[in-house]
Amino acid sequence: MNLRNFLFGVIGIGMIWSCGGGGSSSAPASPSAPIILSFTVTPGSINLGASVLLEANFNGGLGLISPGDIHIQSQVPMAFSPTHSTNYTLTVTGSGGVSTSRSVDVVVTQSKPVISSFSANPGTITVGENSSLTAVFTGGTGLITPGDLPVTSGVSVSVRPAASTTYTLTVANASDIVTKTTFIQVMGPGGATIPSSFGIFSQDRVFFGESSDASLSSTAGASYNWSLIDETSTGNILLGQDTS
Questions:
Q1: Is 240 helix (H, G, I), strand (E, B) or coil?
Q2: Nearest by Cα to 112 from 179, 180, 172
Q3: Are 151 and 133 a contacting pair, CB within 8 Å?
Q4: 3-class DSSP state for residue 121?
Q5: Average model confidence (pLDDT) for the chain?
Q6: Do 181 and 168 touch, CB atoms closer than 8 A?
Q7: Average of per-residue pLDDT across 95-111
Q8: Residue 226 predicted with pLDDT over 60
């Protein structure tokens, strides 16, 4: 082998080596994450029943708002009416599965309930008659006591108290509670007022053969009755007529 052939052989081997025969390839580039430029809510605080606008500015993926999994387009405002304070999250997911998120808060407040009126018609009845309670209110759920009677604003509720009674209307919502009272006077057959509480017993329980004294209010023309209740029977005992 002459010098010339030797040099060509060496050069050929070097070229094959430099060309990376059988070498490795580079790794593919990772997918880039989407970009959220802004995510805003207007206004940030509302009264119950009002709406807010959510607007997102993003690129490189598809936008989704939660709760609700609602699709949103970039730079296109969307209206929402939350019933309570809510954290909204925007998630933008790219074609490679990489996602980016951003959140905003909406504060929802509820005004204090308002009772415009609460009245009884008629306000004075004879025992055994009915009276109608009417409540006008806004901003909450109404309940009348005693009786735990649900009430709708402007719709009358019929009651038949056995004695003069003070009724309380309670209107409540998540933020507050307000109350108002009205009074129904109940008259006996002879025109005497039947009080809501007519006496106090010296003890609330007696055994057979024992007695208990009662202090009774004095109402002209009234007859007093009480119930005798034991393990076997119930009944009414007439105390007699107050002649004062």
A1: strand
A2: 172
A3: yes
A4: strand
A5: 79
A6: yes
A7: 92
A8: no
Whether residue 92 contacts residue 110, with contact meaning beta carbons closer than 8 Å, is answered with no
Strands (E), the chain: 35-42, 45-47, 52-59, 62-66, 70-72, 78-80, 86-93, 99-109, 114-121, 124-126, 131-138, 141-145, 149-151, 157-159, 165-172, 177-187, 199-201, 214-216, 223-229, 234-241
Quick check: helix, strand or coil at residue 11?
A: helix
State the Cα–Cα distance between residues 120 and 158, nearest whole angstrom: 9
Which residues on adjacent β-strands are paired with residue 176? none
Helices (H), the chain: 3-18
pLDDT average, residue stretch 130-152: 96
Residue 118 pairs in a beta bridge with 135
For residue range 2-43, list pLDDT tens digits in order: 545 544 454 454 444 444 555 555 666 677 889 999 999 999
pTM of this structure: 0.50
pLDDT of residue 29: 64
The position carrying tokens 């002879």 is 190
User: Among positive and negative, which fits the CA dihedral 154, 158, 160, 161?
Assistant: negative
**Dihedral-angle region of residue 83 (phi above 0 means left; psi in -120 to 50 means alpha; beta otherwise):** alpha
Distances (CA, A) of 169 to 7, 96, 103, 135, 224: 111, 61, 42, 8, 30
Q: What is the dihedral of CA 44, 171, 120, 199, to 10 degrees?
A: -160
Query: Pairing mode, if any, of strands 157-159 and 131-138?
Result: antiparallel
